[in-house]
């Protein structure tokens, strides 16, 4: 090839090669035994020129290579690099990877409850740890050159997403930011924002999957391709699947069907049997066996339920499924025993170790948040080594953990989102199926969806073919954020900083379209104004008078209607059982007997009636023998009792005979009575002085005599309608601009009221709040301030602190949680009372929990478990009484430990006596009491 080049071209190519070999990227590429993809090279080159980068690429495409290049650059330049991840499991994994490459002396780890070599040049940490460092002005930040934010699309997370934006905004300008994200549809918008707040940022988007993904549907014994083979970018849905879905939808056979007295023909039955023999949802063991026979293992089956994941493993064991040979079984047992050697035998029994091990030896495992972290890590290790070939997992596995498979199976396309069963989104589908296809191992990956009743191939094709996964900011100011910002920057600068958030950036962009509409409306208003010009006078003034007159007449009509409704309701309230009335209108107009006045709750001697507050709803028997509950709409005018009747005690509204007899007595008693006709009163408008004045002014106005008056009036009506619409748009713009800053102002006002802030000064109370991170930061600070936790033992303190972090997975109001007695119970009660006081204050200052700001009610559901564990009780007893999976128990304990650590640092800042020191000591003792047994077992973090 070089022979075809001229000498000058060969010289230029040689110089280019020499320049490339002199770069840090050339050294870095030699560390890998595979070539880099174009998007990786582009991102690394941008980093080396000093630019920040945003890399958006599919799961498994190797975007972490760019993060590792930032580590390489930092070490080469003698700077520090922080590698942040959203979850501890990812931090542990990345720490292990970087330690293998660069050595334990150069790599550290910082998670909420663990610190390893924290002053190393490369430190892996959770994002919250970096946020806390930035607010505390930690010395560890000195010499920081690069920050890698892995899984940066986490900033959409409504609970934790704000932390990512806080870090991005507050990092020193000298730090180069490397943002790694899943494929998002608005990467350019996010890149524009990064460019605004961080300086020159290159956006690199790659849609290419290094291992191609094939989509399938498993129905009965057959695996169908979702898309038909064909040319062109637009893929057609497999017509076999469409036909099957249509046949199932039109299937009418039911063995008990005797519609219209006709027998179902034998031919229909036969067709149904043939159809049913082709289409069914295969069982879990059947699916794994099928994939194993086709060479599609290892596989991850996503099931959106922890219990169903465990049940799936049991089903495979009961079915006699074995995916490992004797050699693999022995290797599994060896690894498992090595990793769990520190766990006492009595705890292993409680944790279901032996059942878990049996599944692992057969190559089958579950993976979900309810498992002990050590168990999850073992499953991950065995899966990567190929010793576990079938994993049943919840969607949490899709969040970045490096567990690629050859195939991914989705049982259903519906999941519980915490409030209802909802279809999974295209973004979620992409994230889940992104695990399929191991780079460097598999030629292709496979996504398999199981056929379910009501399955729609078109819907699945839409999920598989759509890449709409927009990044939406969930940023909201918090109390802790407010005091930290004011302490560092003062109120005015803090406000300006918050206005640079991605949340405000997106809100401001959404305003652009509305602003354009306002401009178009204003042009239209000018045109309408010109069209309604009258040569006799000011028609705008005349139109205003007409409008005022119309509005006044409408208001009076509404007042009249309201008065009539009130009079009708008042008359209904006077009715008693046995009153004979004439229902003036509606479907049941005519003679009726009141059986029950139907007054709203609390209006009739404790009678419940109807809970709605729309007036009485009497239950009546009509002259036509119907028993009906009437509504206020049936009584447009007041009604009076025409007569009284005794209702027999034996009367039963459900008995046709009872109704017939009483209705007959009603007609006999009152059938001859003719009700008085309700006469309409004089209209209020007739005597209204304001209407009289406006009519007089209209008649006196010069434009009143114009021949084209009504034509002008039509243009005026359009003018006022458009002006009203424009004002609404302007209010929307006002509502969206400065939204974050306005929320910040309300938080600052409340903190000033509570003496946490005085102007730009942060008080002693505020300094304490600045050290408390978490959803209930202000409640924790108030508890320290009021001495609620003084005099508590370490175990009692652990119980109280658990209420600040714990949130039950599902609301359960049936039973009150069990609580420790004595001081702890009193302290928990006081915490709930303080929360009630804060809740009232937040309402006063218009701080709303629905907007993601404010203090939720403390949840006491974990207090007994935390107390028991900190008191030294055994795992068996604690888990049995808590009725909680081991993984959840460990996670909540670690969160309690994290907040206890914050309290131990913040408590000495309590102004006044030495009570804070006692709380701080007991907090440290509580940490030691909790961090034992299963809570302490973890490979690293």
- Main sheet: which strands, in order across? 4-3-5-2-6-7-1-8
User: Which value, in Å, is the CA radius of gyration?
Assistant: 36 Å
User: How large is the share of residues in beta strands?
Assistant: 5-15%
The largest β sheet comes out as:
8 strands, mixed
Low-confidence stretches: 255-264, 602-613
**Total strand count, please?**
24
Q: Can you tell me the overall shape?
A: globular
Distance between the termini: 54 Å
Helix amount: 40-55%
Helix-strand makeup class? alpha/beta
Q: Averaging pLDDT over every residue, what do you get?
A: 81
Summed up, the helix count is: 34
Oligomer: single chain
Q: Secondary-structure map with pairings?
A:
Layout lengths: L6 H15 L2 H6 L8 H11 L3 E5 L7 H14 L2 E6 L2 H15 L4 E5 L2 E3 L5 E5 H10 L7 E6 L11 H10 L5 E6 L5 H12 L2 E5 L7 E7 L2 E4 L13 H12 L15 H13 L5 H10 L5 E4 L3 H13 L7 H14 L5 H6 L2 H9 L2 E4 L5 H12 L5 E4 L13 E4 L3 E3 L4 E3 L2 H8 L11 E6 L6 H9 L13 H20 L3 H30 L7 H35 L5 E5 L6 E7 L22 E4 L4 E3 L13 E2 L11 H15 L18 H12 L8 H28 L2 H15 L3 E2 L2 E2 L1 H6 L7 H9 L8 H12 L17 H22 L18 H8 L4 H8 L3 H21 L8 H16 L2 H4 L5
Parallel strand pairs: 1-7, 1-8, 2-5, 2-6, 3-5, 6-7, 9-17, 11-13, 11-14, 12-13, 14-17
Antiparallel strand pairs: 3-4, 9-10, 15-16, 18-19, 18-22, 19-20, 20-21, 23-24
Give structural notes:
There is one protein chain. The chain is an alpha/beta fold and 941 residues long. It is 49% helix and 11% strand. An eight-stranded mixed β-sheet has the order 4-3-5-2-6-7-1-8, sandwiched between helices. Strands 10-9-17-14-11-13-12 form a seven-stranded mixed β-sheet, sandwiched between helices. Strand 9 and strand 10 form a beta hairpin. Helix 32 packs antiparallel against helix 33. The longest helix is centred in the middle third of the chain and has 35 residues, at 539-573. It is globular and about 100 Å long.
């Amino acid at each position: 090839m070089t022979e075809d080049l001229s000498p000058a071209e060969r010289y230029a190519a040689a110089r280019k090669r020499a320049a490339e070999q002199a770069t840090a990227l050339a050294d870095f590429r030699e560390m890998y035994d595979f070539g880099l993809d174009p998007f990786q090279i582009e991102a690394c080159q941008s980093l080396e020129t000093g630019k920040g980068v945003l890399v958006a690429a599919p799961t498994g495409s190797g975007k972490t290579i760019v993060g590792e290049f930032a580590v390489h650059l930092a070490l080469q330049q003698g700077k520090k690099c922080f590698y942040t991840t959203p979850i501890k499991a990812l931090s542990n994994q990345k720490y292990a990877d970087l330690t293998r490459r660069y050595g334990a002396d150069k790599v550290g780890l910082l998670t909420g409850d663990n610190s390893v070599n924290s002053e190393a040049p490369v430190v892996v940490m959770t994002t919250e740890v970096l946020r806390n460092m930035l607010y505390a002005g930690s010395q560890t930040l000195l010499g920081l050159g690069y920050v890698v934010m892995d899984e940066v699309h986490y900033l959409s997370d409504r609970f934790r997403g704000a932390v990512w934006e806080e870090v991005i905004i507050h990092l020193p300008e000298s730090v180069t930011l490397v943002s790694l994200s899943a494929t998002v549809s608005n990467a350019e918008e996010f890149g524009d924002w990064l460019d605004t707040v961080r300086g020159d940022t290159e956006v690199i988007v790659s849609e290419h999957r290094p291992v191609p993904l094939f989509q399938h549907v498993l129905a009965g014994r057959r695996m169908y391709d979702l898309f038909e083979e064909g040319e062109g970018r637009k893929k057609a849905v497999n017509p076999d699947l469409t036909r099957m879905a249509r046949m199932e939808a039109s299937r009418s056979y039911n063995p008990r069907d005797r519609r219209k007295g006709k027998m179902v023909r034998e031919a229909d039955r036969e067709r149904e049997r043939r159809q049913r023999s082709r289409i069914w949802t295969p069982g879990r063991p059947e699916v794994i066996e099928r994939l194993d026979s086709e060479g599609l293992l290892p596989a991850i089956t996503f099931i959106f339920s922890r219990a169903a994941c465990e049940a799936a493993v049991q089903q495979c064991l009961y079915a006699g499924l074995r995916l490992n040979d004797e050699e693999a079984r022995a290797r599994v047992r060896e690894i498992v025993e090595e990793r769990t050697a520190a766990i006492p035998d009595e705890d292993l029994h409680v944790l279901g170790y032996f059942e878990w091990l049996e599944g692992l030896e057969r190559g089958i495992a579950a993976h979900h948040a309810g498992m002990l972290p050590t168990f999850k890590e073992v499953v991950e290790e065995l899966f990567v080594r190929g010793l576990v070939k079938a994993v049943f997992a919840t969607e949490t596995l899709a969040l970045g953990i490096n567990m690629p498979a050859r195939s991914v199976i989705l049982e259903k396309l519906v999941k519980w989102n915490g409030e209802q069963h909802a279809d999974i989104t295209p973004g979620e589908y992409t994230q889940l199926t992104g695990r399929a296809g191991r780079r460097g191992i598999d030629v292709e990956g496979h996504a398999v969806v199981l056929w379910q009743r009501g399955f729609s191939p078109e819907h699945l094709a839409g999920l598989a073919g759509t890449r709409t996964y927009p990044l939406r900011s969930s940023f909201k100011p918090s109390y802790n954020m407010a005091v930290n910002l004011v302490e560092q920057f003062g109120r005015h600068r803090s406000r300006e900083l918050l206005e640079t958030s991605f949340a405000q950036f997106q809100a401001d962009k959404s305003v652009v379209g509305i602003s354009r509409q306002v401009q178009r409306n204003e042009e239209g208003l000018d045109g309408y104004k010109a069209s309604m010009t009258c040569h006799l006078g000011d028609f705008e003034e005349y139109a205003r008078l007409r409008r005022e007159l119309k509005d006044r007449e409408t208001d009076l009509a509404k007042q009249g209607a309201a008065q009539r409704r009130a009079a009708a309701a008042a008359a209904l309230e006077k009715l008693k059982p046995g009153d004979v009335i004439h229902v003036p209108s509606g479907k049941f107009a005519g003679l009726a007997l009141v059986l029950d006045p139907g007054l709203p709750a609390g209006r009739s001697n404790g009678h419940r009636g109807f809970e709605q507050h729309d007036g009485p709803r009497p239950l009546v028997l009509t002259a036509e023998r119907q028993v009906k509950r009437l509504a206020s709409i049936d009584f447009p005018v007041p009604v009076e009792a025409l007569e009284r009747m005794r209702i027999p005690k034996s009367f039963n509204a459900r008995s046709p005979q009872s109704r017939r007899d009483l209705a007959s007595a009603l007609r006999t008693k009152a059938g001859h009575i003719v009700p008085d006709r309700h006469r309409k009163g004089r209209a209020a408008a007739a005597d209204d002085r304001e209407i009289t004045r406006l009519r007089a002014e209209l008649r006196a106005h010069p434009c009143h005599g114009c021949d084209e008056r009504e034509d002008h009036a039509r243009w005026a009506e359009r003018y006022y309608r458009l002006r009203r619409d424009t004002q609404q748009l302007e209010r929307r713009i006002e509502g969206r601009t400065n939204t974050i800053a306005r929320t910040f102002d309300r938080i600052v006002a409340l903190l000033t009221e509570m003496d946490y802030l005085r102007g730009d000064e942060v008080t002693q109370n505020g300094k304490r709040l600045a050290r408390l991170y978490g959803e209930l930061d202000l409640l924790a600070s108030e508890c320290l301030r009021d001495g609620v936790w003084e005099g508590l033992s370490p175990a009692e303190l652990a119980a109280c602190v658990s209420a600040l972090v714990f949130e039950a997975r599902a609301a359960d109001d049936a039973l009150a949680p069990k609580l420790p007695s004595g001081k702890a119970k009193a302290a928990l009660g006081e915490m709930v009372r303080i929360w009630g006081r804060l809740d009232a204050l937040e309402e006063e200052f218009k701080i709303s929990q629905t907007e993601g700001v404010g203090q939720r009610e403390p949840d006491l559901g974990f207090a007994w478990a935390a107390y028991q564990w900190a008191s030294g009780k055994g795992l068996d007893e604690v888990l049995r009484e808590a009725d909680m999976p081991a993984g959840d128990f460990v996670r909540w304990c670690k969160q309690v430990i994290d907040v206890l650590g914050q309290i131990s640092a913040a408590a000495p800042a309590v102004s006044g006596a030495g009570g804070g020191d006692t709380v701080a000591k007991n907090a440290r003792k509580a940490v030691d009491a909790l961090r034992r047994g299963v809570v302490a077992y973890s490979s690293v973090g």
